[in-house]
């Protein structure tokens, strides 16, 4: 069955992958609060991999590059409920509750917030499930109350999360070399790479050529193949396990590019 996506409100949705694997390199404009009902989710970052199972809740921060892989598990489809925490509603929340002094003065580095199976947050998100039986959209007033409830709970569980939720700054200009060396495995457009480094597309390409003496696409392909080569040769992983995590979308294309670069197929054992 194909991917099913059901919205009961613009900011509240349920997704289901009945019998299929899903992979995407993502960069979200909003914070996403996610409750995993069934299945398994693997989130791959530049320097860490997180694995979440049924019942787990997490906050996926905006402006964070990651690869998301969703799998059915234990005979059950992959299902999750997701709530968007948009900047506009967060600003209203902090102002309405007299929390302006909590607004982040210094932009915090986005990072996953993992809440496991905390009963407060789990019950909040589980309470949304019956609403998906509605024939019409959830009224705005009720949706706003549920989102505000979730914000209250997240701040109760982790008071330090204000540094993330109350940071409304856009990415500023940063060093292109360090950023690209950490994030080259993510299959993003040049426009998004430019946005995350605080540059227009034209400026990004110009600065990239100056820093690396080649085009972004050639450099990205070489770096991804080198990472895949290391994973296969040194870590004894299978090509089918690594091609998605290293920025390739198609296994046959990966095999062709790998052989062109190293002179043998990724499935061959070379002494």
TrEMBL record:
Residues 174-271 form the HTH araC/xylS-type domain. Keywords: Cytoplasm, DNA-binding, Transcription, Transcription regulation. InterPro entries: AraC_XylS_family_regulators, ExsA-like_N, Homeodomain-like_sf, HTH-like, HTH_AraC. GO terms for molecular function: DNA-binding transcription factor activity; sequence-specific DNA binding. Pfam families: ExsA_N, HTH_18. It comes from the Bacteria. This is AraC family transcriptional regulator. The lineage of its organism: Bacteria, Pseudomonadati, Bacteroidota, Sphingobacteriia, Sphingobacteriales.
